[in-house]
Amino acid sequence: MSEHQPNFLIRLWRSLRAFLRGIDQAQRERVVALTAYEARELENMFVLMLLGSFAGMPSPPSFLAVELLPHLEHEIRVLNRRAESSTDALAEIMGTIDADA
Amino acid sequence: MKTIFFTGKGGVGKSTLSAAAAWQLAESGKRVLAISFDPAHNLGDIFGRTLGHKVTRFSANLDLRETDLDEAAAEYIRRNTSILTEVYSYTKAFNLDRYFKVLRHSPGVEEYAALTALEDLLRTSDDYDVVVIDTPPTGLTLRILALPRISITWVDRLRRIRRDILDKRHTVHSITGTFSEEGQKLAYEEKDDRVMQKLTELFDRYVAVARHLESDANRVAVVFNPDYLSLRESQRILDGLSDLNLGVNVAFNNKYTQGLSEIADSMERELFDGRDAPPPVHRIPWEPYRREKSYEISYDLTQLFAL
Fold first, then answer.
1. What is the pLDDT of residues B206-245, one digit of tens each?
2. How far apart are CA B59 and CA B126, in angstroms?
3. A24 CA to chain B: closest CA distance, Å?
4. For chain B, what are the domain ranges?
């Protein structure tokens, strides 16, 4: 019986470590998800500011948009997705902070 | 390198005076480039040469050039649409690339092409002591001169947002060791981000132009005639320039004759009374039209620009 004890302790320690790592991972992912969400919002704002004249917003001179357009494929995709989900922004935030479970 | 901008209503003789100033300065031993941004392109007619985008040597010290703003705008659009159609190459499949060509007619392109031409001129003219610039019609000139400052404000704001975006991406990167979305790796450092690079490049370019325009190396001359139409336009020029923090260094009351002295007096009072630092006004006597060498005028212009 006593020779199993170290084995058991090691296994306990390993599971505990895995458990803690899991919590750590979950925390990290939550932070990452929030930060990535913020980054996407900013990207959306950035490209909306730049191309705002197309939506009737006061906007920088259109040539700035033309100069930057070739490098903005990702941001424009974000803008499109954001436009599609714009009526349901609350759901997206709830999803990000895991409150919809 | 110093620059002198000649502004004024169409027909007051700003091309003739800028040509005369360029000629006299060149004869006095300075290396001079006379360039016209005016679509009317009188500079070539005055010197009796066909001018174009390439420099034409007129005399040992005098070079001439005309910048065609329409051509510059077309060139700018050609360059950018080719980059666009390259990047978004799939648009060709749907014949969407022709929509990019509509950009040619979008507002602001002419000003931007002119600003690009001006920026190019300032960057490449260090060999000259003086660059004399004949400007396009007033409204366009004022918009061109305002553009660097407006653009700096916008680019600066965009750069701040971009920096925030990169900060967030950097945070994600330092937690997870990567930053990608939909399998696409995204830059998280300023030096790798092409949008940031482009913004910084534009920022530096506009700052250089704005700095030059506001610096001691730049002179602005306003030309008018002793008549009330050109007075009104000159007032608009002075107001517009002071909104841009640009002063007028010299004023020319052109095509002046003795009989007009009363009108000239009252005009000059109306123009400059109550303004900060009114420029010296020079009355350039009217000279009968000559078919040749109209750039040779008897009034000495060489000392007026404090070069």
1. 999 999 999 999 999 999 999 888 889 999 999 999 998 8
2. 19
3. 11
4. 2-76+102-154+211-285
